[in-house]
UniProtKB/TrEMBL annotation:
This is Cardiotrophin-like cytokine factor 1. InterPro entries: 4_helix_cytokine-like_core, PRF/CT. Pfam families: PRF. Gene3D superfamilies: 1.20.1250.10. GO terms for cellular component: CNTFR-CLCF1 complex; CRLF-CLCF1 complex; extracellular space. In complex with CRLF1, forms a heterodimeric neurotropic cytokine that plays a crucial role during neuronal development. Also stimulates B-cells. Binds to and activates the ILST/gp130 receptor. The keyword Iron does not apply. Forms a heteromeric complex with cardiotrophin-like cytokine CRLF1/CLF-1; the CRLF1-CLCF1 complex is a ligand for the ciliary neurotrophic factor receptor/CNTFR. The CRLF1-CLCF1 heterodimer binds SORL1 (via N-terminal ectodomain); within this complex, the interaction is mediated predominantly by the CRLF1 moiety. The tripartite signaling complex formed by CRLF1, CLCF1 and CNTFR also binds SORL1. Belongs to the IL-6 superfamily. The gene is Clcf1.
Length: 219
């Protein structure tokens, strides 16, 4: 009947179709993807630090956990790399200079945080600090990857220890807590500014190239 004739016609047509190539889409990893990954990591660390800072400041107690506590920066705290640079001056730096500054700063901040991890008084706080340190180590490595992908060398020499040998410890508990307070405060500012840096950088670097590879499909 008519139905059988139509079925026979379709089968014949399908059997005589030419062999078509299959499109296999692959993405080449490049600078754009490395920058996007680093940007995402800075935003994740910003979110993670908000919880960690609240927990740690509560551990320090008043006045450090009070919302309006805003002490002047002491000379002791100057050992912590400061992010309080004029924004116009910061943006006027080359991409290489900003990346190098980020790399050095997070390397040093990581040393300070690891010291906090060993001093924290509760198991929960040590766990949170340890997890954050691992994430921050990932950011340092990610920044190194971005610099490499853009053809920039890493800053020469080590990032430097938290303090030169022989630097005296805080003479009292309050000043030690003040050091910790400024460490968290500067880290928050660095992450906020780094997120903006990498957001601008990813707009300057073209997205990863998408290539199409044609593969003959056999039967």
């Amino acid at each position: 009947g008519d139905s059988w004739g139509i079925f026979t016609f379709l089968c014949a047509a399908l059997c005589n179709l030419p062999v078509l190539p299959a499109l296999n889409c692959t993405e080449e990893l490049g600078a754009g993807q490395s920058i996007q990954k680093t940007y995402d990591l800075t935003r994740y660390l910003e979110h993670q630090l908000r919880t960690l800072a609240g927990t740690y400041l509560n551990y320090l107690g008043p006045p450090f956990n009070e919302p309006d506590f805003n002490p002047p920066r002491l000379a002791r705290a100057e050992r912590v790399p400061s992010a309080t640079v004029d924004l116009d001056l910061w943006r006027g730096l080359t991409d290489n200079a900003r990346l190098a500054a980020n790399y050095r700063a997070y390397s040093r901040l990581l040393c300070y945080l690891r010291a906090l991890d060993g001093q924290a008084g509760t198991a929960e706080l040590r766990h949170r600090l340890g997890h954050f340190c691992s994430s921050l180590q990932g950011l340092v490595l990610s920044i190194a990857g971005v610099m490499s992908s853009l053809g920039y060398p890493l800053p020469a020499g080590p990032a430097g220890p938290p303090a030169p040998p022989g630097t005296p410890v805080a003479p009292n508990d309050f000043l030690k807590k003040m050091d910790d307070f400024w460490l968290l405060k500067e880290l928050q500012t660095w992450l906020w500014r780094s997120a903006k840096d990498f957001n601008r950088l990813k707009k300057k670097v073209p997205p990863a190239v998408v290539t199409l590879r044609l593969e003959a499909r056999g039967f």
